[in-house]
C-alpha cells in the first residue's frame, strides 16, 4: 500500500494593508523584556536594512504598506504592532504598561485620526495593541499576564463587537501573545504550547481545527512572530523547524532576517500593524 500525503486545505493569499515605522531611532537603552540588554551594542544601520527588507517583502507579496514618522527618544516605536488594534475600519489606540513607551500611544493615535480612523480613541485599559490582541476571523484572541491587562479583553469586545478568547501567558520570554502564537488563516494557527497554561492550550485546541506546534528552538528565535496573508508566512529566517512545518502544511514560508530587532525582543510581526478595513 502506498501512503498518500495528507491533503491540506488550499492556502489563499489575501491582499493586506499594513502600518510600519522605520527604526530611525532604534536602540536598546532600557530593558522591559528579557531579550533586551542595554549593554549589548545595536547596529542601527543593520536594523534599518532589515526593516527595509521586511517592507520590500510585503510590497513584493502585493500588500500595501503605510509608514508613520518615527519620533526621537522612542526607540521601540519601530514595533508598530503595539500602536493599537484596527478591525473593521475602527481603531483602538494602545495604552502601554511601561513609561518608556507611553508617548508612542499619542503618536499612533494621531496617525489613526489623520489617516481615516477619525473615531480612534485611546484604550482605557493597558492594551499593547496587536502585540496581545490577535484577530482570528470573527474571534479575537487576547493575551495577558505580562503586558496587556486581562480587563482589556472586555474593552476589545465592546469596541469591535467581537467575542474574545482570553489567554494567559506564562513564560516571560513570550511576553506578548504575538511572540507565542501566529494566526495563519481562519482555521490554522502556529503556537508554542509551553508559553500558555492548560486552559489556554485547551481554548486554542477548541478554536483552531489545525494547530502547528513550534519547538523550543523555533520559539527561542521568535519564530512565531510571523505575518501570514493566508498563504505566505513571513517569519524569522532562523526558525528552520517551523519553516519546514509550514511548508509541509501547504503554506509558503518567506524567511526574513530580523536579528538586529530581536535584540529588543521583536520580529517581523512586531514591526507590522494590520489595518483591517
Ligand atoms: N522592546 C519592545 C517591548 O518590549 C518590543 C515590542 C515587541 N512587539 C511585539 N508586538 N511583540 O515593548
Walkthrough of the structure:
The structure is a single chain. This protein has 277 residues and is of the alpha/beta class. The chain has one domain (11-274): L-arginine/glycine Amidinotransferase, Chain A (5-stranded Propeller). The protein is 25% helix and 22% strand. The strands form 5 sheets. It has a 3-stranded mixed beta sheet with strand order 2-1-15, covered by helices on one side. A 3-stranded mixed beta sheet has the order 3-4-5, with helices on both faces. A 3-stranded mixed beta sheet has the order 6-7-8. The longest helix is centred in the first third of the chain and has 17 residues, at 44-60. The radius of gyration is 17 Å and the shape is globular.
List the helices and strands and how they pair.
Elements: E1 17-20, H1 44-60, E2 64-67, E3 84-87, E4 90-93, H2 99-114, E5 121-122, E6 133-136, E7 139-144, H3 152-160, E8 164-168, E9 181-185, E10 188-191, H4 198-207, E11 210-213, H5 216-220, E12 227-228, E13 232-236, H6 240-248, E14 252-256, H7 259-262, E15 273-274
Parallel strand pairs: 1-2, 4-5, 7-8, 10-11, 13-14
Antiparallel strand pairs: 1-15, 3-4, 6-7, 9-10, 12-13
Bound molecules: arginine (ARG).
